[in-house]
User: Fold this.
Amino acid sequence: MTAKTLSEADFAEGDLWVFGYGSLIWNPGFAFVEQVPARLIGEHRALCIYSFVHRGTPEKPGLVLGLDRGGACQGTAFRVAPAQRPATIAYLRAREQVTGVYREVKRSVWLNNHAQQRVSALAYVSDRGHDQYAGRLSLEQQLHYVRQGHGSSGANVDYVLSTVKALEARGIHDAALRQLASRLRGDVAAHH
Assistant:
């Protein structure tokens, strides 16, 4: 399946803004000038993507975050210097578009800074038509996939716990992820 990406003309001159809502928050992997708390309206953070590479395999999928329709999402906007734009876009495409499950889009995000400005940011949203789109899963289903998932970037449990830790460190409270993390921490404690 072909990855859905923007054309060069879709990127304005000057700084590139990138919206992070999951692992990009705690592991951006690219150089940036600043990071600012930000809010995207119209989509929400959800564990709605089966992971076949980074946190699982096709035989034993893991579960990773996507931006899914409706609501709003608190995250982090990263400002990338113009000179770093091509390398950053190439890096993000290699990381996020490995199976084409995300659509590369530009979204308006509101920065939580002194100016409360709105910027157009690069974001990766769930492709609901893709085979890896899981949709809304119950807590028990999420636990099953996260517990079994292990891929090229490591254990799915580590991904969820690291994401929740990073969100909470920034004052972002995601009740569904927090509940999942609590159950996963219970698993870890029971094994020691």
